Amino acid sequence: ILLFIFWFSVVPIKTLVFPTESCTSFVEMIPQKPMNLTAFTLCMRVATELSSQREIILFAYRTGNYDELNVWGELDGRATVGLSFYMAGNPVLFKVPELRALITHLCVTWDSTSGLAVLFLDGKRSLSKIYKKDHTVSPGGRVILGQDPDIYLGDFDKHQNFVGEICDVNMWDVVLPDSVIQGIFAGQREPRGNVFDWDMQLFHCPNCVMCNHKILIY
Ligand SMILES: [Ca+2]
């Protein structure tokens, strides 16, 4: 049974809660436009206590052939090494403090023309890196929160899944100015995401239970 849920901005708090390590818990986010992207800003609010224990998937956009855009909390051996994103190959890694129980506002930006990749944590900007200059993100895939698909949609590994809370996942097909990202961190609702707009987001959520303004995903 597929459960489609419309959430609109009249609902003040909308958080996805992934309570347990699981290989079934996921939410699919339906984009507003095809995801052939030569630039993007992807933001979310996220909290997890697992990042010190293992790698953890934060966002997955996969086509039949590639992980087109995956965001990870990375672990090397027993040490947290930071946050990374992958586009059809090797990652770009940012050495930042690990995610914890308190909600963190995370954004990543990338632009094909320059290859500039930047990460923001709670409005603080990272150094710039050059990553996948002239690359284009391909359309036709599926965007998943909660799991890392190793095939188009499936082959989930509970030792990589997301456990914690995610909300405010918004995406734009441009690189937003630093000042705008800092405003979004501070709670400003403009500009609306034109790839994902959390307040208008359509989800496919097969194992979800609604509870107040939270959605529990098992
Ligand atoms: Ca995997």
UniProtKB/TrEMBL annotation:
One cellular-component annotation, GO: extracellular region
Keyword Metal-binding: yes
Name of the protein this chain belongs to: Pentraxin family member
Organism annotation: Oreochromis aureus
Cofactor: Ca(2+)
Free-text comment on the cofactor: Binds 2 calcium ions per subunit.
Localization: Secreted
InterPro entries in the cross-refs: ConA-like_dom_sf, Pentaxin_CS, Pentraxin_domain, PTX_dom
Top-rank taxon, per record: Eukaryota
Keywords of the record: Calcium, Disulfide bond, Metal-binding, Signal
Residue stretches making up the Pentraxin (PTX) domain: 12-217
Keyword Calcium: yes
Assigned protein family: Belongs to the pentraxin family.
GO molecular function annotations of the record: metal ion binding
Residues annotated as signal peptide: 1-17
Subunit structure: Homopentamer. Pentaxin (or pentraxin) have a discoid arrangement of 5 non-covalently bound subunits.
Primary gene name: LOC120439830
Pfam families linked: Pentaxin
PANTHER family in the record: C-REACTIVE PROTEIN-RELATED (PTHR45869:SF2)
Principal location: secreted
